[in-house]
């Protein structure tokens, strides 16, 4: 018998390394074994959730968020969001800021915090999400409903590079269907260089754009990262933030 990678034979042997363990009665030793198995199971589950989320980096955390004054981040708001009540309430978060100002880092920190609460999280760039749609469309018997199911099931979906460029009417229709599936049912974080006012033109057809924004904006927390310097300039790092 195996307790999450520790055999039932190995577990008592490991207890022998605990000081004064022989003075502990059988019931307490058994409870200790159960606690070890439970903690191991929870740790394994957390590792799977973080791996399956597809984060580009797992370094960000709520504890190392930069609150330099020029970024104009409200620590009280971030701390409240880290608790995850917005996920239970199925509310969205809009993180807006110039390229390199740390949008993806903040979203990832919130995503990892959600994983630690055992929510199913997925990080994806909008171009990758739309590529999934194109691949499915080109498949024999392709049906973009499969993509809707795939991205509609996550407790928290993080969409980076949101509407950097305009999208086709077909893509806008897909986005609408995904937002319809998630609105009021799941939480979504959008990372964008542009605020909702600019999204309208990038989504094209007016009625579709109105419908998409209606399903995103009204229940969303708005976070604007100002930042006079990009994260690359601030810390001398490469890559996208």
UniProtKB/TrEMBL annotation:
Residues 8-234 form the IstB-like ATP-binding domain. It comes from the Bacteria. GO terms for molecular function: ATP binding. GO terms for biological process: DNA replication. It holds the Pfam family IstB_IS21. InterPro entries: DNAC/IstB-like, IstB_ATP-bd, P-loop_NTPase. PANTHER family: ATP-BINDING PROTEIN RV3427C IN INSERTION SEQUENCE-RELATED, CHROMOSOMAL REPLICATION INITIATOR PROTEIN DNAA. This is Transposase subunit. It comes from Lacticaseibacillus paracasei.
């Amino acid at each position: 018998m195996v307790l999450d990678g520790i055999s039932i034979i190995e577990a008592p042997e490991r207890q022998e390394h605990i000081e004064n363990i022989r003075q502990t009665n059988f019931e307490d030793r058994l409870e200790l074994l159960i606690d070890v198995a439970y903690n191991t199971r929870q740790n394994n589950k957390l590792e799977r959730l973080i791996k399956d989320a597809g984060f580009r980096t797992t370094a960000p955390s709520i504890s190392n968020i930069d609150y330099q004054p020029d970024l104009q981040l409200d620590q009280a708001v971030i701390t409240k969001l880290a608790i995850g009540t917005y996920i239970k309430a199925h509310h969205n978060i809009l993180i807006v800021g110039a390229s390199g100002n740390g949008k993806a880092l903040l979203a990832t920190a919130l995503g990892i915090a959600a994983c630690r609460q055992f929510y199913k999280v997925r990080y994806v760039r909008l171009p990758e999400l739309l590529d999934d749609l194109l691949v499915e469309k080109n498949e024999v018997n392709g049906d973009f409903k499969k993509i809707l199911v795939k991205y509609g099931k996550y407790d928290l979906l993080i969409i980076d590079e949101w509407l950097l460029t305009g999208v086709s009417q077909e893509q806008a229709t897909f986005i609408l269907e995904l937002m319809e599936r998630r609105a009021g049912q799941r939480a979504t974080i959008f990372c964008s260089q542009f605020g909702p006012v600019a999204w309208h033109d990038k989504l094209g057809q007016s009625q579709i754009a109105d419908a998409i924004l209606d399903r995103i904006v009204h229940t969303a927390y708005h976070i604007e990262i100002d930042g006079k310097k990009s994260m690359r300039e601030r810390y001398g790092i490469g890559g996208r933030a």
